[in-house]
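sry for the spam today, last one i promise. struct tokens for design, 209 residues
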């Protein structure tokens, strides 16, 4: 019985020795050479190099210059002298309505569209002289187109029909005149033949548009 007990202990020790040898063999790498078995030392595992942090580029800061807005400029109000010419009177440029109008005791006007016939075929008005015909124009044109459109005639004494042949060129072709409101008109003398020749008895004025 003692022999069997000793044999059991020896078997256990043998198994333990084999297990230890197997463990040592797995941990180390053995090399067989002609001189015997060489057990090489296990190589240390290289430590992983810590990756260097990548320096981030600084963000470029763009400074935006402030835009200075100039204050609004208020235009100066126009004075009366800088305004447009006087507006044309009603009735399409005339102060007269369509048809016949009595301008004075001896002067009659007849309007038809853009034309007005002024007739002064009466004693004291009929004439062949430029100065006398101009006097009739100054008296009657404001009644046809309005005083606002003919105010400048007061500063043109003797300059409207000066050097014009009343019963000649003015009767055939007429003359052009610009009113203060910018309207251009044509004035043509009307004549009638009497015993000593033609004489002015009126005129026709037409707006040239």
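last one done:
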């Amino acid at each position: 019985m003692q022999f069997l007990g000793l044999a059991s202990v020896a078997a256990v020790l043998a198994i333990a020795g084999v297990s230890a040898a197997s463990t040592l063999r797995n941990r180390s790498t053995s090399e067989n050479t002609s001189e015997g078995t060489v057990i090489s030392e296990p190589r240390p595992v290289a430590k992983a190099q810590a990756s260097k942090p990548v320096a981030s580029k600084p963000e470029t800061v763009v400074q935006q210059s402030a835009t200075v807005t100039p204050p609004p400029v208020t235009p100066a109000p126009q004075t009366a002298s800088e305004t447009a010419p006087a507006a044309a009177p009603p009735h399409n440029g005339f102060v007269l309505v369509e048809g016949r109008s009595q301008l004075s005791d001896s002067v009659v006007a007849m309007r038809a569209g853009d034309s007005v016939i002024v007739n002064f075929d009466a004693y004291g008005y009929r004439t062949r002289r430029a100065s006398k015909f101009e006097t009739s124009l100054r008296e009657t044109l404001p009644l046809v187109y309005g005083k606002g459109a003919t105010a400048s005639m007061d500063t043109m004494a003797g300059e409207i029909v000066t050097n014009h042949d009343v019963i000649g060129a003015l009767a055939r072709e007429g003359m052009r005149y610009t009113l203060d409101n910018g309207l251009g008109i044509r004035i043509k003398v009307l004549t009638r033949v009497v015993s000593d020749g033609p004489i002015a008895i009126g005129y026709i004025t037409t707006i040239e548009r």
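The longest strand covers residues 197-208. ok im logging off now
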